[in-house]
Write a structure and sequence with these properties.
The chain is an alpha+beta fold. It is 65% helix and 11% strand. α1 packs across α3 and α3 (46-76) packs parallel to α5 (119-172). It is elongated and about 105 Å long.
Length: 344
């Protein structure tokens, strides 16, 4: 989804902002005509009315132009990420646009009236218009702040409900962790002579401990996520052997970056679940870094008869929407299936 379209769509959807624009343009245009008239035309004379209509049109152009600038800058330099850049870019761009438009309109009027340009009057009118535009831009920013805050507040409520439900579902589906791990440790002592069996049980125990720990944050480091996915693949390779090929190419400098918990494991699990794995068709899964994304890629050899709801990926997309503006990317070709996760 194009982020610009998303933000523009949200912004244009504000009913209050629409009402202010529809009512504000003619009202501001009329007031500017009255303020800037400076005794040139008799009030409500034909000349005054023509000048008022022209001023309303120019006001509309100025209003919509400044509105466009505000929306674009909210997309390019969001306040919560680049507040200084937002201000440093917005102020000069709005001033240049407003003053340039005012100079152009003044020049057109001079050409039409065949009169010399009154620099003092031009300076006065420009100063009034700049002050008015500054107020309108501030109003737009305040409206956007309010609706952004309201949207984020609603998102936080949804996220909290989803978190509570996830914890509740997990609690329903698990037995007492202490009982489970104590019995796994007992099982290790019973098969102590079988090295492969003890390794398997130990890795399984570590994997389950990681997945059942509800007290930890929903966000994990890349290092811990890679560690748990390697444990998961170890368990699967004992089942599939050399028919499952797994490689990672992630430099340790990325280990402190963050990911939603169990994100990598879920994608690897999907790859194993939905692809054929046989002696003739080995499944190759690779994890690597591509710019600001960690990528999980596998060769595509779909298993027929397995129905995919894509619920796991959709849930992961929603989790990302609460954390970052960057979106999870899914790329499917005839040969490969790739999921690109933004690093946080």
């Amino acid at each position: 989804m194009d982020n610009t379209k998303t933000i523009t769509g949200k912004y244009s959807g504000f009913k209050l902002e629409r009402i202010l624009m529809i009512l504000g343009i003619p009202v501001v245009g009329f007031l500017l005509t009255f303020i800037l008239n400076n005794g040139q035309f008799d009030l409500f004379s034909p000349e005054y009315c023509v000048n008022c209509i022209a001023t309303i049109i120019v006001t509309g152009i100025n209003w919509l132009g400044c509105r466009y600038i505000v929306i674009k800058l909210w997309n390019k330099y969001p306040w919560h990420i680049h507040p200084v850049k937002h201000v440093l870019v917005e102020i000069p761009v709005v001033l240049i646009f407003t003053i340039g438009l005012n100079l152009l309109v003044s020049w057109i009027f001079v050409l039409l009236d065949k009169e010399a340009l009154d620099l003092g009057l031009l300076f006065r009118n420009t100063a009034i218009i700049v002050l008015l535009v500054s107020f309108l831009v501030s109003l737009h920013e305040a409206l956007f702040f309010y609706f952004q805050w309201k949207e984020n507040f609603n998102k936080s409520l949804v996220l909290e409900k989803a978190r509570i439900k996830a914890e509740y579902d997990a609690l329903k589906n698990q037995i007492n962790p202490h009982f489970l791990f104590n019995n796994l440790n007992t099982l290790i002592t019973l098969v102590d002579e079988n090295k492969q069996a003890t390794n398997y049980i130990q890795v399984l125990s570590d994997f389950l401990r990681y997945t059942l720990d509800l007290k930890e944050s929903d966000i994990k480091t890349v290092g811990s996520e890679l560690d748990i996915v390697k444990k998961y693949v170890y368990l699967q390779k004992l089942r599939f052997g050399d028919k499952l090929i797994f490689t990672t190419e992630v430099d340790e400098k990325y280990y402190d970056h963050k990911l939603p918990s169990m994100a990598l494991q879920m994608i690897v699990d999907n790859a194993i679940k939905h692809n054929t794995i046989s002696n003739e068709k080995a499944l190759s899964i690779k994890i690597f870094i591509d710019n600001s994304y960690i990528v999980v890629e596998n060769n595509l050899q779909k298993r027929y008869g397995v129905i995919s709801t894509n619920q796991g990926l959709e849930n992961l997309k929603r989790r990302y929407s609460f954390i970052t503006e960057k979106e999870l990317k899914i790329i499917e070709t005839d040969k490969d299936f790739t999921v690109k996760l933004p690093l946080i």
